[in-house]
Fold this protein.
Amino acid sequence: MTIRDLLQSAQETLGTLEQPRLEAMLLLEHSLGRPRSWLIAHDDEAPDTRQQATFQQLLERRAQGEPLAYITGKREFWSLALEVNPDVLIPRPETELLVETALERIPVSESAQIADLGSGSGAITLAIASERPRATVIGVEFHPGALGVAQRNARRHNLDNVLFIHGPWLAPLHGRRFDVIVSNPPYVAEADPHLDALSYEPRSALAAGPDGLRDLRSIVADASAHLQPHGWLLLEHGADQGDAVRDLFAQSGFSDIETRRDLAGLERVTLGGRHG
Ligand code: GLN
């Protein structure tokens, strides 16, 4: 089969996905180790049988529901090409709102101290570090496998203003204070049927107790002790958790509490300041 035929039949195999043609192309790029421009220019050539077999296997995995990012081992976030594997949550586009909102509060010309709790692949940590070279960004991660992914991603992008630390949430940051603390913790309720569709991703990065607020609650409660006066806490949360999260911030004495909506118009990031 030629490249054109392979793409045509792959597109049919992936017919139930939103973007079958694009995904077929990305899988073929990955299988042959060739960029799209090459595939298009050589679409009347036939890859050898071994390459075709590899492509068919990857296609089958995708058709079974495995996320594309785990099959290709990579995902882009904030224009950074990142390694991902099943030890880490696949970075979501809506999380760029958390980065954007944090950057508004991190001066370009001063050496701010930033912490990212539950850094996973390092997506948020590295996006902030790449935009604020004078800041020091500490990513905290509990799972050793994820820590390895984040460290490799930092090296890949030559970011030397980041440091990854092992531990749960704020515990390993004992005695340190930050100008900005950000986190995209797990926030899905344990019984949420939405979790079934995310079964390839680490449950520990997604589910957080009966109401999904377990980790948001503990981070908000502990954050003040780790913030500089006038520091900020910014948290991603579920679209229906805005009220609850604003209450948590208020109960812990934060001021200037507000919630930002993502591109889909959903409440997604709540922030508050520590004053005095
Ligand atoms: N936004 C993710 C989803 O619902 C959940 C991420 C998280 O729990 N931090 O697909």
DSSP finds ten helices and nine strands in the chain. The CA atoms of residues 38 and 130 lie 31 Å apart. The mean pLDDT is 96.
